[in-house]
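Task: complex structure prediction.
Instruction: return structure tokens for all chains below.
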Amino acid sequence: MTRVHVRGGRLVDPKHGVDRPADLYIAEGRVAGIASAPRGFEADRVVDATGLVVAPGLVDLAARLREPGLEYKATLESEMLAAVAGGVTSLACPPDTDPPLDEPGLVEMLTRRASSLNLARVYPVGALTAKLEGERLTEMAELRDHGCIAFSQAEVPLADTQILWRALQYAATFGLAVWLRPQDPHLAKGGVAHDGEVATRLGLPGIPAFAETIALGAIIQLVRVTGTRVHLCRLSARESVEMIRAAKRDGLPVTCDVSAHHLHLSELDLGYFDSHCHVVPPFRSQRDREALSAALADGTIDAVCSDHTPVDDDAKQLPFGESEPGTTGLELLLPLTLKWSREARLPLVQALARATSEPARILGVDAGHLGVGAPADVCIFDPETYFTVAPSGLRSQGKNTPFLGYELPGVVRWTLVAGEVRFERG
Amino acid sequence: MQLPDAEALCAELVKKLRPAVTPATGMVGIHTGGAWLAERLHRELGLALPLGRLDISFYRDDYRKSGLHKSVKASQIPFDVGDRRLLLVDDVLYTGRTIRAAMNELFDYGRPESIALVALIDRGERQLPICPQYCGATLAVPKGKMLRLDRNDAGRLSLRLDDA
Amino acid sequence: MRNPQLNANGELAHLLTLEGLPREIIVRILDTAESFLGVTEREVKKVPLLRGMSVFNVFFENSTRTRTTFEIAAKRLSADVINLNVSTSSTTKGETLLDTVDNLAAMHADMFVVRHSQSGAAHMIARHVGPERHVINAGDGRHAHPTQGLLDAYTIRHYKKDFSALTVAIVGDILHSRVARSLIHVLNILGTPEVRVIAPQTLLPAGVESLGVRVFPDMRRGLAGADVVVMLRLQNERMGGPLLPSAQEFFKYYGLTPEKLALAKPDAIVMHPGPMNRGIEIDSAVADGPHSVILPQVTFGIAVRMAVMSILGGA
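Output:
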């Protein structure tokens, strides 16, 4: 194991409220010292972080790696490289692989393959129901023992509230967390865009905001009854923010996240049917976007994630309603979070918490911080340099992003995982 | 340069045409200047059949290069073209392409017995083998200029030289 | 964002939607259409304008009547016409939409007339083939049917002359109607002061007022003093489900009968994009009556399509 001295950087560690010039000393894959070298430390490698921010590696709550089964869209190799290139050192992957992650064998195969690549750490989210079909519960305890940190339905709706209730009860029995994207499938049926003025003009079938809030209301009620730890994924409507605020005030064990792209885009960005803006949940109105941004700033929304979803060109080059929804995001999580922090006028140390210590707390893992003894997962980046988003610059196989051509701040120079350099920008 | 008096030329054309017209004669003027001239000739000659007007925009040979002409008017031939002797009227005869287009259009209405061309001014520089049977005057127009017929509110005709 | 319908010279290169089109372009199309009306009176019912050009009717969604009017329009301009009913051929074999379009472009198509069940399909195809080849949207999902909007505007102009004092009422399934959206856009661009939509709430899209219309759930109030009444076709599948209970109730409250029509102005005209569902949205007495201009709409439709093709073909 290498001993690394990260010299001359600005250390930003949100969990410990640190934002000051300080060197970092790494040994045996962990943070050995901050500001001053531990006694007898001799560096095998020195990383010159002059003018750069030294932060915990980002923790991404949702990144689709497309393995197993969807390898024509992307592979573990390409997406893990994309992750470290984006400064992401821990990520949770949703269970909607093919087949879905509903069996211990599949989960183990995934975690083994991921760790053999020695890049970012992968935390699988297991399927809540068998095949995600919403009928039979999975062996959640067994799946937890094989590495699943939570259970979800990914994008597959669970309309049967009886099953939802029982799944929450079962998870609570073992102290397991359930991650849910609130969407009423009947109200959302056939919809591809936010049901508002833009969809009306473009003639696109709409998903009303109340498809989210009605489902959210049901989930919150069930949490009151079962006490399950529930994480709500990808909020999109301002009314949802209000409901979460009230639920937290009542002391319910709920957390939530927003995807980085929803902080910046609204229904107006659909333009002339740009299928890169076909995402779930849809981009809603300007007011919704502003509410999401403010909620992430004040902590009502706990974390920001990439919702990384590589989609092949063929599936995007179709009329809007027929195109496959989703946007690539691992390499844009940091830049979009930085851009958001500047617009929200939030100090870097507070903004970065939403992509490091907070998601780590939700995952329940020791990550997203750089206290002494912490795993040395580090993201060293230049916050002042801007780059233009282009397909050639993305390591992910998914080039599908609505931010193509945008100038964004934040260029990652080094990413370390367990104290080893896993990405270095040439 | 000194431009001829359009009113005087018009009167001369009327004199030349009078022996040639019969109650069966059909007159067709080409928009816009040719139609104005034809209206005057039609009235002065007291022709029996109503006047026809042609817009040749759909028959021009420069469609691919220049696109559809900005303002298109409707063509109206209120008599049967078939087996009829026609007088085709235009204000300024130049390359001959307008007349070619007009004749093609006339033949889509029917098969005339004959077509005689009436022009107020022949400015030469023909690019097609076309010539007028009745002509007011010949006039050489300087390079880069266009000769146009004007009609004021009182109906008075005059010639004008514009930049091309 | 540059209007994708205009080329670098600001000329119309595609006709995809009426929304955002400059007023001058619309007026020019209507004026040009007027000069085409006389063509059918002649011995040779054609003009040679598009001679040597190929017009491909690419219909991903079936429609014999619309396709036929485009075919007639193209042939009257002396173009060569190829009809492709793509729903039954290549795409079912797995060929992508853009591959199909590329293949057709390679066969030297100059102009594509496209109808598709998905909103935005025509925009996508136009982006792909570029401004040298021209795309005419013959209907995409619920989004737009620009030639229908233009022929509706032509019809209204023909009978009413001046838009600046008109009240136009559009009745029926606004939610699913590309005809309604295109008509609303063109009426607003031409300065119509009062555009009304008349429909039950289930058939109105979210925020419909933002399109520039007043909503009237009550048909009698909505027809009061109208100069133009446009009836939309109600498709069978909309009835007996979550949107409408039955054809009978719809006809009773939203169908156009002589008695309801009497609430409009005495010289009001009645329009319909066709095909009509007699007894569902419109009573036969009205469809065949003195206020109806439904048949002239068809004639005007051919002239309008000729105008669109001749303007595009020269760009």
